[in-house]
Amino acid sequence: MAVTAKAFQLWRSRIAPQDTVSDVCRVAGIKRSTLAQQLVRGKVSVPTIVSIARGYGLPPVESLAVFEGFADVPAGVRTPTDAELVSQVSHIDILRLLVARSEDQECAGSDLQLNLAPFPHRNSVRAWIEAIDPGDLRQQLAARTGVARQNLSAQLTAGRLAPEIAVEAARIAGVSLASGLVVTGLLTPDEGGWPLDGRARALCAMPDLDLVFLARDRLDVLGKQIRRAELDDGKDRAMWENLG
Amino acid sequence: MNNLAIQWLVLALCALGAVVRLPGVLQGRGRVVFTALVLLTVAVGLSLDAIYLAVDPVLGGVNVANLLLRGCLYAVFLLLGLRMAAAFDSRLASRLVAGPFGIAVLAVTVLATLYFFLASELQGSSTGLRGFDTQDTVLQYIVVGRLYPAYVAACLVVPGVHAALDRQARPLHRLASGFLAAGFTLVVANVALRLIAADLHQWDIILPFSAILLTVVGLCLIWASHLVNVRSRRRANKLA
Q1: What is the rounded CA–CA span in Å between residue A48 and residue A27?
Q2: Chain A residues contacting B via beta carbons under 8 Å
Q3: Of B169, B226, B239, the CB nearest to A235
Q4: Which domain holds residue A183?
Q5: Residues A103 and A23 in one domain
Q6: Is A4 helix (H, G, I), strand (E, B) or coil?
Q7: Where are the transmembrane segments (chain B) (predicted)?
Q8: Same domain, yes or no, for A12 and A110?
Q9: Is B35 on the interface with A (CB under 8 A)?
Q10: Nearest partner of A225 among B86, B237, B95, B53, judged by Cα
């Protein structure tokens, strides 16, 4: 789930030969104890690498390429597909566009006029996986990363995806290798090569029919989440009211 | 740790469990469980020599205190049984405890307890009636006293385990349910072991008191979880 401490130290001595670990943490804005703990365990997390790269003004994607499993990422960065772009629009913004269209008030299609909420949104990761899925993505992902499908589902439900798995998913689906890192919030859209107004353009380009079905699918997901949450709330209340 | 220390520890824990709920009770929350914990504290207290031998002479020295202990225990199991069946959202357990059959078991137990108590010669205080274990009616009285607690505990074991294994539930609630389920299991195991007449030696004390300990810890965990939730009171907007 991370890079080895040895590879990290090698990289660190290359990008900041004079700096101590404390200096690196200060520049990167991460807690010293966090990095120390990761070094002791022998595994440095990908977010740590990204923070340090940013701190030293290095492009995170190129920095990651130094480490095993990420070597092909810079060469694999491409423009995201329309499906990926649309997957990162929140359901609220989709509904807003739907309402705007129904009232003949659609904007010209720029991000500014649509005022799309920044992403990742709460279902970013799952929506992205669904947008790039060629049909058997989850099976292939489980087979190639050795992570059990149950574990994958749990990560998606929690809105998380380990960086290695996110990159592997992009490899399988044949999309930009940085996309998975963008939708998990590890990289900013800019760092991952996502055009600034790409989401608004892709969304506005959708025909009415597709937009309605997209809204339906998103509401369906939301409905299931709320049902689950209310069930859990009910259980909590039963506990508290009877035994609390 | 010897048996006496365990007993005093459990007594302190029961009292503590009741006391911490007092502020909530004054605001009208959790009265039933509070009552149950107070009664449990009384019951545990009366099973200690030091307290029993001080209280019983005041009540006439004919071991009425032991009858009081039984009454408290039955009430504790009735109250906790009802509340836990509701907390675990188990209709079957609710029906088994509060339905006609459960009430019948309780009524039979209470009547039999009274009958065997009156039928025994109990002059002179003796904790747990240990001084009278040559009388047949006293032995019957003791056996009958375990009937209702075991019945209620048996009804709650399965819902408790189920709640502890619920992967969607809060980890703290799963832990608490696990403690409660373990407590009920010990109550059932305690009675079962005595029915097959196994000689329990020192487990005679450890088994039932561990059951109480586990149950009270479970209740305290849920109380703490409720308190934290009331304090933070995050009414999350599910649509946001």
Answers
A1: 12
A2: 222, 225-226, 228-232, 235-236, 238-244
A3: B169
A4: 82-219
A5: no
A6: strand
A7: 6-26, 33-55, 67-85, 97-118, 138-163, 175-193, 205-228
A8: no
A9: no
A10: B237
